[in-house]
Amino acid sequence: MFDFLDSGQYDLLGAFWVTVQLTLYSAVGSLLWGTLLAGMRVSPVPLMRAFGTAYVNLVRNTPLTVVLVACSLGLGQTLQITLGGGDFESIGFRLAVLGLIAYTSTFVCEALRSGINTVPVGQAEAARALGLSFFQVLRLIVLPQAFRSVVAPLANVLIALTKNTTVAAAIGVAEASALMKTMIENESSALFAVFAVFAFGFVVLTLPTGLLLGWVSKRVAVKR
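User: That's the sequence. What structure does it adopt?
Assistant: Structure tokens below.
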């Protein structure tokens, strides 16, 4: 049933390695941009709050496929933005990472904002009374506690990101789902086996992540 894996025709590990790279780069970028967006959402500056709110509500409610295609067609083909890539594959990969960051950061922002809301207001007021600026309060007092409160929700966002990387096949990125499509076309007599292989691959990627971050969440939870 799994004879097609021994033929050497399909680079299964290579495809899943692309998926892992998409996940890692997008996760780091989403965490950084999502943290900035969360800071904007709670900022005392009306313009920053308006931008953060508009961005999150607009991008979060846009299908990921539309976001990635917009990056590919709008930035890559129309504006000729390559992000330093030299060939079609590297350009597509980098634009896919950019699209995933733009989309996933909105969910990181909302998860982190919920964590910010769990921090007692009195702590921020006390810090301001000591002369700390808003950004110092956010960086030194609020965000450390907020991150500890939302490890589990961020783990769910990371797992969803891992599965969302399959959408990158829509703009020609050769990750796992793109290879699965090729194998389904070529191995029509072993569809169940093909689905089983890729399902197992994604379970291997996501299950340890959920278990590890669930354990971390319990270890670093803020005791109130």
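DSSP finds nine helices and no strands in the chain.
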